[in-house]
Amino acid sequence: MKRIVCVIAIGCLMLCLTECGTPASSKPEKEYSMETMREEVYGVDSLVKLADGTEVTAICFDNAATTPAFKDVNEEVVEKLDTYAYVGQGKGQKSAAVTEFYEEARQTVLDFVHADPELYTAFFCSNTTDGLNKLSSALVTDENDMVLSSRMEHYANDLPWRNRGNTIYAEVDENGRLRLDEMERLLDKYPVKYVSITAASNVTGYVNDVHTLARMAHEHDALIIVDGAQIVPHRAFSMMGNTPEENIDFFVFSSHKMYAPYGGGAVVGLKSELDSHIPEFYGAGIVQEVYDEEETYLSAPSLYEAGSLNYSGIVAMVKAIEILEKTGYDSIQEHEQILLRKAIDGLLAIDGVTVYGDTENISDKIGIITFNIDGVNYTDVASGLADTAGIDVGKGTFGAQPYVFRLLGLPNTVEEEEGSASTPGMVRVSLGVYNTEEEIDVLLSTVRGIAEQ
Ligand SMILES: Cc1ncc(COP(=O)(O)O)c(C=O)c1O
Question: Among 171, 207, 361, 448, which is least packed by CB within 10 angstroms?
Answer without folding.
Answer: 361
